[in-house]
Amino acid sequence: MAPEPEQRVAVIDLGSNSFRMVVFAPAEGSWKRAEELSSAVRIGEGMADSGRLSEAAMARALRTLEAFTALCDRQGLDEHAIDAVATSAIREAENGREFLERVRLSTGLEVRVLSREQEARYGYLAAVNSTALTDGCVLDLGGGSLQLVRVARRLARESGSWRMGAVRMTERFLSDEGPAHPAKRSQLKALEAHVARKLERAPWLASAGPHLVGLGGTVRNLAAAAERAAGLPDEQVQGFVLGLTALDDLIARLAALPAVERSQVPGIKPARADIVLAGALVIQGVMRAGGFERLEVTGAGLREGIFFERQLVRRHVEPVLASSGARAA
């Protein structure tokens, strides 16, 4: 049987912090990102107190998804070429299903709600297909949750998922003083202790091996800031190696500033300024618990993992991202 013709594919990720869409297109026997859209929707904002998606967050989300589907229409993508998925916030919200029905009626999108295990698997697929990871661990930090996967001989062996995303940890530990005041030392210590205690559920972390690969918006933003602090050229963060000492220094700089001023640190995006410190502390906790001195950053993420799985089904897997040589501060 002749293979199906290569066509464009869109993956839409309804994350707890950001909604993202990537359109993948065939290119000379491989694939490329033809379009990318991202919006800091903060669908999970306020869920720590209410357990529900707020009306304001859902309105932002619907506007964003209407823009995404309008682009898909212009690209000529039908429902079979669009894979929309939701993660931690929508998965756990009391009114998550109600919101997805509103999405279906407004945009026509049928959104898959990923389990924790599926979310971890897609992060793993993104990491092993965009880096040289053979033995070690994958860290995927989102707005609502953290996924870790131990990798041996490029195969996923153990995995875990924790409700320790950057938005969730910010709201729980670092929001009391408001965005105009630096976090208190007691707040930072409480967050650090929480992460250390939760990671006791992953005794395999310390024996995973020295190679840690990180993905997610917070990981990429921290890598960009570390690049700037080291005086490196402003490049893509793919392949950048973030050392634990450099991360410690960056955390100290961020913690000394109110949330509203953290975007003054070169490389930190204004849209992430209020949540990046909590995310950095979660990453620091993983590196300490696993004895990792370095974290290699990949620009791939959940969307690429979903795309890779589609290609695996077609028995046609080519890396979307060329793994560049590792760069470090």
Q: What attributes does this structure have?
A:
seven-stranded mixed sheet, 329 residues, single chain, disordered N terminus, Nucleotidyltransferase, domain 5, 2 domains, alpha/beta, globular, disordered C terminus
Describe the model:
By secondary structure, the chain is α/β, with parallel strands linked by helices. The protein folds into two domains: 9-114, 2-Layer Sandwich (Nucleotidyltransferase, domain 5), CATH 3.30.420.40; 117-297, Nucleotidyltransferase, domain 5, CATH 3.30.420. Helix content is 40%, strand content 21%. The chain is built from eleven helices and twelve strands. A seven-stranded mixed sheet has the order 8-7-6-9-11-10-12, with helices on both faces. The longest helix has 21 residues, at 55-75. The N and C termini lie far apart (51 Å).
Nutshell version of this structure?
With 329 residues, the chain is an alpha/beta fold. It is built from eleven helices and twelve strands. It has helices spanning 47-50, 55-75, 88-92, 96-107, 116-128, 166-174, 185-198, 217-229, 244-255, 276-290, 302-313; strands at residues 9-14, 19-27, 30-39, 82-86, 111-113, 136-141, 146-152, 155-162, 211-215, 240-243, 294-297, 327-328.
Overall body shape? globular
User: How many distinct folded domains?
Assistant: 2
**Highest CATH level, the class of the largest domain:** Alpha Beta
What can be said about the biggest beta sheet? 7 strands, mixed
CATH superfamily of the largest domain: Exopolyphosphatase. Domain 2
Strand order of the main beta sheet, please?
8-7-6-9-11-10-12
SSE ordering: EEEHHEHHEHEEEHHEHEHHEHE
Beta-strand residue fraction: 15-25%
Mean pLDDT: 91
Helix content: 25-40%
Q: Oligomeric form of this entry?
A: single chain
**What would the CATH topology of the largest domain be?**
Nucleotidyltransferase, domain 5
How far apart are the first and last residues' alpha carbons, in Å? 51 Å
**What's the total number of strands?**
12
